[in-house]
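Data card: per-record layout.
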Amino acid sequence: MKILAYPSLSDKKLFILKLNYWLGFFILMPNLIFAQHFIMLKNGEVFEFSSLKIKEDGVKIVSKEKGNFKLPFSDISGYYNTQLGLSYFLKKGIPDGATEYAYQFDKLVVEGEINLYERTHFSNNLIVRQGGAGSSGQWIEIYLEKNNLYRGFDKYGLTGISNKKRKEILLDFIKDDAQLVNEVENKDFKCSDLNIYKIVGKYNLSKLSSIKTDSSESTVFFYLKRNGNSAEVMKLFVNGKFIVDLEESKVVSTNISNQNFSKICINNYCGVIKSSPYHFKYYGIVGKENEIIVLLTDAEKANRQMVHLLNK
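The structure for this 312-residue chain is written out next.
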């Protein structure tokens, strides 16, 4: 397992030239080298494409290698967006979701026994979210997938689905984990998007029976998005091995399996992640109220924060 930890910037004059060089070459390298995208077919084939568009009867694809053609929905699994460092999967619609019939490519945010996706919607109307907050433009619908079961949380996205209904949907996915069921059924538990992320992460960790090692590794980055526990040093472990103290002025990259899940721990937080053979992945670390959360972030947002951290 290869590890790169950037040094603390206690002496900015000593490190600034080296940092600027590596920032230009290494941090922004995904946009320079991995600008292409790859489509995934259900038969296991993966090939590069330039653009795609969802039509009524399939997906129109433009590829330098294969030309212009259309594939039926039934042939396509999803695609890798190498510029953003994210994976998207083709879904027809989401039971209990805001769109139950339309095909769309949805972002995979949490991966494991339960997959959590985000579907982006665009609207010119005022959208009232949970808690009464309103906005226009785009809003995010999340939904879960486990085996052949998948359900959303925002069928009534314009007005906000009830906390009770959200709990019922979440419990369908975790009903074989008594400890998590008790946590969700607690009257004080709020079934917000962030808390759903946390419960899914805990569930996936509980289902990781063993760590499998292999030689198929790719790079993932860890960086601090926000730290409310400034007095606490964050310690990063991967598969039980100590990697580094994650101070606010550090960015860390490490190579982990892109075939099997790895267990990562940062102080009191543990979760499972897998790298991608087609792009870097970026995980932002949020520390607040004695709790640590690790969230997959797109490369553009991650690079901006990493540049900020390395030049502090």
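Known properties of this structure: The chain has a mean pLDDT of 80. The two ends are 28 Å apart (CA to CA).

See the next section for split statistics.
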